[in-house]
Amino acid sequence: MVEINETVARIQASVRRLRAEYADDPNVTAIGFGAPERGGKHQDGLAILFYVNEKLPSERVIETKGSRPIPKEIDGFPTDVRDQKFVKGSVGQRDERKYDPLLGGPASSNSEQHVLWFNGNGTLGILGTDNATGAPVGLSNWHVWADGGSAGDQIIQPGHPTGGDHVEAIGKVLACGPLITSLIEWESPDPIAAICYGGAAAAAIAAACSDYKDQTRRGQDATVPPAGEKTLRERVSNEILYYDLPLPGYPFKAETIWRYERETDQRIMVHEEREKVANAQFLLGKQVLTDKPGYNPGERATIFASIWDYQLERTCNDYHVVAHLIPHDQPTTAVRSILQPVPCDEDPMGEEEDLDCIRFFEMENGEVIYKGSFDWLGYLQPQQQNMAIVNWGEPAKGLLLPARGIQFSHPPVSEVRIKVVQYTSRPVRLRAFAGGALVGEDVTDGTQGVVHTLTVKGNGISSTHVMGGGGEAVLIEYCVEGLDREGDFRINLPKEQLEAILKDAREARIEVNAARTRQCCFRGSVRIPVTSKPGKWDVYLTVQNINNVPEGTKPEVAAQTIGGHLLSAQTLSPSGCLGIMLLDHVFDVI
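RESULT FIELD:
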């Protein structure tokens, strides 16, 4: 026992010293000690644990990130490096992870006799042992487990969301597996979080229930009783199966099983249908610019926006377009501007070239925040890892590519062409998407130290994913061709999804997977508050459709159109149950 205590005291002293030494390291988030892990399994003994934002592949990349190598052994103890980034959850501080083996601290609930969405939850306090039987027991507060419960009730962990969480969770859990183990997490600024959640909920319900003809009316048409038989009441129920994450602005697929019941004074008449549906409310692309890269406090900023839509019955007056300007130093506040339609020849993006390029090799060395925009090119590092512009000598000058890649977005184009250099045998891959569907991909052959050009062609490409290279690839430039104002853009979706979309968007011109699109341009302005401090401001653009049904339209026809759908995709190719907001534009207050 004395030897064990001495070993623990020794490793504790080492950890204290290392915490001071690595206090200014941008990649090291925490240092502690515990059992080492190898191959996902705990090993015997003690190790010094380093928690890092990301595991870096080589000393060159470590130096680029401003970090330092971690030795395999320190003071006679092995080291164990773990990449674990801590991200604040969108539903508060309740710990919703599933622990096995169980430990104290996470959320728990009494699962008996509770309504699924609204049952209580609270912290599992401590674990113990029954003195009489030796059985494991847990301890929590009366209001967490016992309020409304009784002896023998089943306790679950993680806990169900509370009623307060339900408001945010409505649109989050539909495609993410069991409610009690999985919630979509948004990383988004507070001023537009409610818009994102509300839009997700509306998109999920509208796609599944469809607004092309109300299910109640369809059930009524199928169950017309004979003369003299009176209808007493009607009921409609839905079971919704989501095959994709139901996020607004994406053509996600779903299936609905609905049942209509008409209860008369003589019987119950039933009509049931099972149908494949899809979200028809999405844009093919959007772009935001400001008239200047920087403003003084009190100065007026002019905002320009362009959107591309395939639903041609909408005029440019049929959108509600809002720019949300959020300062970095006050992320819970926003200055907003409602943008008005303008002719696209007034749009500063109207000057077209055969090839538009973002040249990373011309940029100054330094850190790049994990999301933002380079002029017309939006970007997002999904793991929320900051990146860097590096100069490793010719030809490797440009943006260091994280191993898990970067997602880019831009207006619809006909070709994307990138240049990269890699220094591992792992190839770099370019994948291009139109309307959320894969258009094509290109990949390097793995040759190191030379410039590779990757190209994907296809109408309507509006987002890409560049990945690979083992963490030692440099993106030199990103070029596009054909910033089209109007044209045929392919939406390579499965036949059943196209049919589901056309059922709701009958006016869309889709032939052989090609959709005709229209560009609309908008402009607005807002005065930068005179109290603003120097720093960066983020711009997010939200686009909703407007109910444009003329007055006097028959109710059964008017009911087929619903306004207020959030058309703008606020994320890029979301994966799993994580929705990270992508900036549309950034400017400076100077």
